[in-house]
């Protein structure tokens, strides 16, 4: 599935991921391939991408969560996510 993470200043990430874990108002939620369409607000926390690697262009924005698993995190203050047809856009600050 394709995920794009945008801030007002720059594109944080754009590419294919296996899944994404997001900090929602009512707790974290996981979006996986073929997830139903969703629009949700996000609170402060970490956006976690489950993917084999992050392109060099975007690597500077991410922290690798675990050496064993391929989980990359990006801290946010707030935001919104829209996901539909295996494409997601996360607008955040």
TrEMBL record:
Keywords recorded for this protein, A-Z: ATP synthesis, CF(1), Ion transport, Membrane, Transport
InterPro entries in UniProt: ATP_synth_F1_dsu/esu, ATP_synth_F1_dsu/esu_N, ATPsynth_dsu/esu_N
Lineage: superkingdom: Bacteria
Annotated ATP synthase F1 complex delta/epsilon subunit N-terminal domain residues: 1-56
GO cellular component assignments: endomembrane system; proton-transporting ATP synthase complex
Compartments where located: Endomembrane system
Primary location recorded for the protein, binned into one broad class: membrane
Signal peptide: none
Protein name: F-type H+-transporting ATPase subunit epsilon
Organism of derivation: Chryseobacterium takakiae
């Amino acid at each position: 599935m394709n995920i794009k993470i945008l801030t007002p200043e720059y594109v944080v990430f754009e590419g294919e991921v296996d899944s994404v874990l997001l900090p929602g108002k009512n707790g974290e939620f996981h979006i996986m391939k073929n997830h139903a369409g969703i629009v949700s607000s996000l609170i402060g926390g970490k956006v976690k991408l489950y993917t084999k690697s992050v392109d060099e262009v975007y690597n500077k924005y991410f922290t690798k969560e675990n050496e064993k698993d391929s989980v990359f995190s990006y801290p946010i203050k707030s935001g919104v996510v829209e996901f539909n047809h295996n494409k997601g856009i996360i607008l955040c600050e």
